[in-house]
Amino acid sequence: MRVFDRQKDMINRGGLKIFSAEVESVLAGHPDVVESAIIAKPCPVLGERVHAVVVTRGDVGAEVLRVWCAERLSDYKVPETMLVTSNPLPRNANGKVLKRQLREMLAAG
Questions:
Q1: CA-CA distances (angstroms) from residue 102 to 14, 32, 88?
Q2: Burial of 34 from C-beta contacts in 10 A (0-12 / 13-18 / 19+)
Q3: 82 belongs to a structural domain
Q4: Whether residue 80 has pLDDT greater than 90
Q5: Amino acid 86: pLDDT
Q6: I need a surface site. Which of 20, 28, 68, 89 has the fewest CB within 10 A?
Q7: Could you list the residue range(s) of the whole structural domain that residue 27 is in?
Q8: Band (50; pLDDT cuts 50, 70, 90)
Q9: 3-state secondary structure at position 73
Q10: How many angstroms separate the CA atoms of 4 and 47, rounded?
Q11: pLDDT band at 101 (very low <50, low <70, confident <90, very high)
């Protein structure tokens, strides 16, 4: 049996473990955030970096959300890159966010 996708809910940034749910929970606390997904962005130096895809209801910018996270998380857990959108995140029939699809979208540029 092989498990696909669940392993990527943990990001390994230079040996430091970051759980996606923790960062997503902090982002969910922002009043303008509807939903978010944290995914790993490949990095040749650190292995992986934290990338956020955030759905907002207002015109809040990535830098505002980054500061929000920096006030509540350790510095290595703060998303280094962020895609802020008003489009809902892709989900399967059960309502689970399709992080694999988000990673493919990130890799495609």
A1: 22, 21, 12
A2: middle
A3: yes
A4: yes
A5: 93
A6: 28
A7: 6-108
A8: very high
A9: coil
A10: 19
A11: very high
Indicate whether 31 pLDDT > 90: yes
Beta bridge partner(s), residue 47: 13, 43
Q: Is residue 72 part of a domain?
A: yes
The residues pairing with 17 across neighbouring beta strands, listed in sequence order, are 12
Number of domains the chain contains: 1
Q: Which amino acid is at 89?
A: L
Q: What are the strands, taking DSSP E only, across 1-109? A: 10-13, 16-19, 33-43, 47-56, 81-85
4 pLDDT higher than 50 = no
Tell me whether residue 102 is in a domain.
yes
Q: CATH code at 14? A: 3.30.300.30
At 86, the amino acid letter reads S
Look at the block and give the residue holding tokens 């998380």. Answer: 73
| Count of CB atoms situated within 10 Å of the CB of 2 | 4
The answer as to whether 1 is a domain residue is: no
User: For the whole model, what pTM was predicted?
Assistant: 0.88
